[in-house]
Amino acid sequence: MSKKRGLSGEEKRTRMMEIFFETKDVFQLKDLEKLAPKEKGITAMSVKEVLQSLVDDGMVDCERIGTSNYYWAFPSKALHARKRKLEALNSQLSEGSQKHADLQKSIEKARVGRQETEERAMLAKELSSFQDQRKKLKAEVEKYRECDPQVVEEIHNIFAIKSWAKRKYGFEETKIDKNFGIPEDFDYVD
């Protein structure tokens, strides 16, 4: 006792196209709604949806004449559509193959002079050593930053401005620090 499964959307589309190709005729929707269930097993309720999807994909032509829509599709049109699609795909394949070849050439070109040699390994090790040394020196310079004459001058200026603002306007030191983003641990340099 097996349940009969319904047709998939693609099966319905294929069978609908068979109606057009076998008859080489022009139909109205009502004609197809009668013919498709009898001939191809497509339920009458899904005929309109399947037909519209074929029209949207350019596989079936539709023309409104008066108050009626007429639908048709001839094998020659499908053949031409497939040929155009095949040409487009072949063109894409050709472009892709050319791009692949160009990239392979670029890779080969980039590899020239980059072979792993003893000299290259030694230079890479030396570069790494210099980079480490540079980091250490930067850290050392940062330690003595507060002794930089320019930094010392800026600190003197900040304290002079704070002192002036306290005398002139009577501001509290904590409010000045807060409003101008001066850290709490900011010390005067002698």
From TrEMBL:
Please report the name of this protein according to its UniProt entry.
Meiotic nuclear division protein 1 homolog
From the record, what ranges are coiled-coil?
A: 86-147
Query: In which organism is this protein found?
Result: Rattus norvegicus
Database matches in Pfam families: LZ3wCH, Mnd1
Query: Which GO terms fall under biological process for this protein?
Result: reciprocal meiotic recombination
Q: Which domain of life is it from?
A: Eukaryota
What are the entry keywords?
Answer: Coiled coil, DNA recombination, Meiosis, Nucleus
Give the protein's function. Required for proper homologous chromosome pairing and efficient cross-over and intragenic recombination during meiosis.
- Residue ranges occupied by any Leucine zipper with capping helix domain in the UniProt entry: 135-189
